[in-house]
Amino acid sequence: MSTPELLSHYRRMLLIREFENRLDRFFAEGRIHGTTHPCTGQEATAVGACAGLRPDDFIVSNHRGHGHYIAKGGEPRLLMAELFGKATGLSRGRGGSQHVADFSIGFLGSNGITGGGLPIATGAALAIKMQKRDQVVLCFFGDGAAAQGTFHEAVNMAAIWKLPLILFCENNGYAMSTPFACNFPIDSIAKRAAGYAMPSAVIDGNDVLIVRDAVAKAAEYARAGNGPYLVEAITWRQRGHSKSDNCDYRCREEEARWLEKDPIKRFRAVLAGQVPAEEIGRVERDAAAEMDAAIKFAHDSADPDPSGLEESLWVT
Predict the structure, then answer these.
(1) Domain residues of the chain, as ranges?
(2) Over the range 98-129, which residues count as b (16 or more CB within 10 Å of their CB) and which as e?
(3) Given its phi and psi angles, is residue 34 left (phi above 0), alpha (psi -120 to 50 degrees) or beta?
(4) What is the C-alpha to C-alpha distance for residues 113 and 91, in angstroms, rounded to an integer?
(5) 89-99 confidence digits (pLDDT tens)
(6) Chain centroid, CA 116 distance in Å
(7) Closest Cα partner for 168 from 124, 216, 134, 132?
(8) Strand partners, 208
(9) CA distance 118 to 140
(10) 10 Å Cβ neighbour count for 237?
(11) Mapping DSSP to helix (H, G, I), strand (E, B) and coil, where does residue 224 land?
(12) Looking at the domain covering 3-299, what would its CATH class be?
């Protein structure tokens, strides 16, 4: 892989980490209101998955979607403005963290409903097949969403109709505060793929290159008309389920063990053996500067005009 490509992956991972770190501080300071679900520690799943796709492919996100949007090529400043409730935000300041979309980059939206993105992704994949196009759709979901009925309904439809769908499970070990072992009688979500006659893979979700290669393989399979493919990426969120979660259900030993597997720390070590230190430092400075600019953009942007409050409402 070329040095520019490696550095591009590293930069996007840094942008995601910077975004979540800044956001955490803004909530603590009362500058942003509501809630958020940080993806700190899951940067490799987002960046690796999107790197394994073509630019014209689509993704569907979930409630923990900031990293997915940035990894797909989204502009952090637009997402930051949305969280600040500004008119320049992705949803003009009306959607917040869980209700944003950017069709120009194939980001079909985040979703506040657990498992809610699975039927959307299946529908998008059906549209692609009916229109005889060759894109694929990748759907991000967590292990908790695999316990929802929408998972089985969507996967069954995708398998029957051989839709170009990649089911990408970010298994971070917890559904809110419930450990994986308390939610499932099996040790892997990927084992369910056999019930729908589709292939699957269980991968290290904290290695961005492993994730990229696994998704590229799944995309090739789905793009060829073979039907859906399930990828289960084993990862771990370094923060709570949401900003108000103190993670009292996790022990310090578990936290220390997983922090040693930090995806950014691991990838930086890989880069150190292939890329000059000054290049790595430049990328780190650029990522921090871009986040500074995103915050300034959000801060300086205008608030939404109250006279347009009823715009974009759908009433039946």
Answers:
(1) 3-299
(2) bbbbbeebbbbbbbeebbbbbbbbbbbbbebb
(3) left
(4) 18
(5) 999 988 888 89
(6) 14
(7) 216
(8) none
(9) 8
(10) 21
(11) coil
(12) alpha beta
What confidence tens digit (pLDDT) does each residue in 250-289 have?
999 999 999 999 999 999 999 998 999 999 999 999 999 9
CB 127 within 8 A of CB 99: no
> In angstroms, rounded to a whole number, what is the distance separating the alpha carbons of residues 65 and 39?
7
Which is it for strands 178-179 and 174-175: parallel, antiparallel or unpaired?
Answer: antiparallel
Whether the Cβ atoms of residue 121 and residue 46 lie closer than 8 Å to each other: no
Residue holding tokens 């771990």? 236
Amino acid at 200: S
CA angle 197-198-202, nearest 5°?
Answer: 130
Residue whose token pair is 């409050």: 309
Four-point Cα dihedral 151, 37, 235, 108, nearest 10: 50
Average pLDDT score, the chain: 95
Residues linked to residue 142 through DSSP beta bridges, in sequence order: 170
Query: Is 164 within 8 Å of 223 (Cβ atoms)?
Result: yes
CB 237 within 8 A of CB 263: no
Has this prediction a pTM greater than 0.90? yes
